[in-house]
Design a protein that fits this description.
alpha/beta; single chain; globular; 285 residues; five-stranded parallel β-sheet
């Protein structure tokens, strides 16, 4: 079931349905109504605790309300919350100040970006990717462009990589993997259903799943063998849905490409030389 509500319509919809819910579901729905802005940042277990109900009750409540699940409700509440807020983060000094303030914010966030990375996870990820027979790179929504770029970069290093863009093609690709292959999956929220399904299917085939995400307690992280978690300072689920996580993900992937280049040694050098030869032959005067 999928809910298609106009912006601003989530809370009124819940309010209109709540009388018909069972008692446990009604308690959960009351939390949605009382704390709509908080729900965006709360896990389903936190909602369950607030309602004095079980996590399963939260999922059932969302379905009874007509939503596909809790994650869909969170996204729609994030949308409505963003619509309701006054315009923010506008500088009186104009576009240049906004641009430079963005650079400053990124610089101040560097420590937060790497706080959840570990030497073991990064080393395992690089070793696994370098030794893979083939690699499927998956990203959906705002992460799709990162997946395409990462795929191109890895192929330039001599790795057998491809990045299907269609969700059905992604599902087919991961089902053809073996225990000698890797699925590299990029998702800021870690809650995109197509990406999570791909991770689960890849693991069923015995492939190693390496994920890049901003939330450690996400469905994608749980479905991964190696989860590389990076985020901005003060990262929120609501902001991540729009733009924030792409910045640390780009930097992390850039770092992984540098580490892969080092790990692959002569193989990467030969592949990069071939790539540069092709590029040079296609440059204008």
């Amino acid at each position: 079931m999928s809910m298609d509500l106009a912006p601003g319509g989530v809370v009124p919809h819940i309010r209109s349905i709540i009388p018909s819910l069972l008692p446990a579901e009604r308690a959960v729905a009351e939390v949605f109504l009382e704390r709509p802005a908080d729900i965006v940042e709360m896990s389903s277990q936190q909602v369950a605790d607030a309602a004095g109900a079980s996590r399963a009750s939260v999922v059932r409540t969302c379905q009874s309300l007509g939503f596909g699940g809790y994650q869909q409700l969170r996204v729609l509440l994030a949308r409505d919350a963003a619509r309701a807020l006054p315009t923010q983060e506008r500088s009186a000094d104009g576009p240049f100040a906004i641009v430079t303030e963005t650079f400053a914010h990124v610089g101040e966030s560097i420590a937060a970006m790497t706080a959840l990375l570990t030497n073991e996870d990064v080393t395992r990820a690089v070793s696994t990717l370098a030794g893979a027979e083939s690699i499927v790179v998956i990203g959906n929504g705002l992460s799709a462009a990162l997946a395409a770029d990462t795929d191109s970069r890895m192929r330039s290093l001599g790795l057998r990589s491809h990045a299907p863009t269609d969700s059905i093609a992604q599902q087919v690709a991961v089902r053809l993997l073996t225990d000698r292959d890797v699925a590299l999956i990029i998702s800021g929220s870690g809650a995109t259903s197509a990406s999570t399904k791909a991770a689960q299917a890849a693991r069923e085939r015995g492939a190693t799943v390496v994920s890049v995400t901003s939330f450690a307690r996400s469905t994608l992280a749980a479905a991964s063998d190696i989860a590389l978690v990076v985020g901005m300072r003060d990262l929120s689920f609501q902001r991540e849905l729009a733009v924030t996580s792409r910045i640390p993900h780009v930097i992390l992937l850039e770092g992984l490409m540098a580490a892969l280049t080092d790990a692959l040694g002569d193989k990467a050098s030969a592949a990069m030389a071939a790539t540069l030869e092709v590029i040079s032959g296609n440059l204008g005067e």
